[in-house]
Amino acid sequence: LGLRAMRDLESLNRQPGTATHAMCTFLALNTGSQQLLPITAIAVLTQAGAQRPTAIIGTTLLATLLSSLAGLVVIKTLARLPIFRVRPEAPPSPVTPPGTMAPSVELVRLDTPPASPLPARLATVALALCFGWFAWLLVHPATPAADAMATPLWMRWTNSVSLLAVPFLLAFFPLYAALRRVAVYEQFIEGAKDGFQTAIRIIPYLVAMLVAIGFFRGAGGIELLTQAVSKPLAWFQFPPDLLPMALLRPLTGSGTLAAFSDLVRVHGADSLLARTGATLFGSTETTFYVISVYFGAVGIRRTRHAIWAGLAADLTGALAAVWICRLFFAPG
Questions:
Q1: What is the separation of C-alpha 45 from the centre of its chain, rounded to a whole number of angstroms?
Q2: Cα–Cα distances in Å, from 33 out to 2, 285, 311?
Q3: What residue ranges of the chain have pLDDT lower than 70?
Q4: CA-CA distance, 210 to 79, in Å (whole number)?
Q5: b (16+ CB within 10 A) / e for 147-161
Q6: Phi, psi dihedral angles at 225 (to 5 degrees)
């Protein structure tokens, strides 16, 4: 879906090879990306024997909210700087030979998506009310425990969202699609075919990015970065054990996953560091991977301020993960 959106944005681009402001904004949103279900992090915690692996859903929602806002603020701010501005170019006017008429321009009207049928809307409202009632029972139980009621109200609501997010989404999507008479299986098959072709198309850019990352890591770039940023991050009370994850995340997802799995193995699946690492994993993105694949697929060479906005979103997501998890999960 992201590559298709990027191709559509490129079709509106009057300066091929240069990222438009809409493309940069789209990638900032993609990097900050409001995370609904951090499936990979939950799977690692579950495999390690965590008692509440879904507890990170609420913290990830809050952290990605902050990272998305940071990405948007940075993208809007940098777009005003002269160094990132692009002088608009008027489209070339066609040359019409004398004595001939100029070709007519055919206007294409985009079809408006049909409104949702009444049964689908009613079922969606009923499902939302049902899960809202479940959340209310979790926040205000009939026989509340003393330690549970000592937790702030907003924190109890966030914990209820963490518990109910997975069953709600699993029930919502197939129910809503069935009520709108969408052939879910057939649509899935067509999407899988299109995804396979997309994977083949992005392989060259993916290989180039992975080779560059391999050279960077092999030359000791990660160690140098760790030494350079360890003291500044200490001012924000950033745990040193999370530094490898935070530095690897913009570069490689597999490397970050390996660092996160090792963190869980050493400190335990229910430790504060493991939950913080899971929230960090879910609230940040492989910025250079996203930019190289998305821009490479449409031939963009001048990325303008997209990288800086993506890195700002990653930094905000990492810091927010530490602060939010310390607030939610730290003892006392």
A1: 20
A2: 12, 8, 13
A3: 87-116, 142-151, 154-155, 198, 202, 205-206, 209, 213, 331-332
A4: 29
A5: eeeeeeeeebebbbb
A6: -65, -40
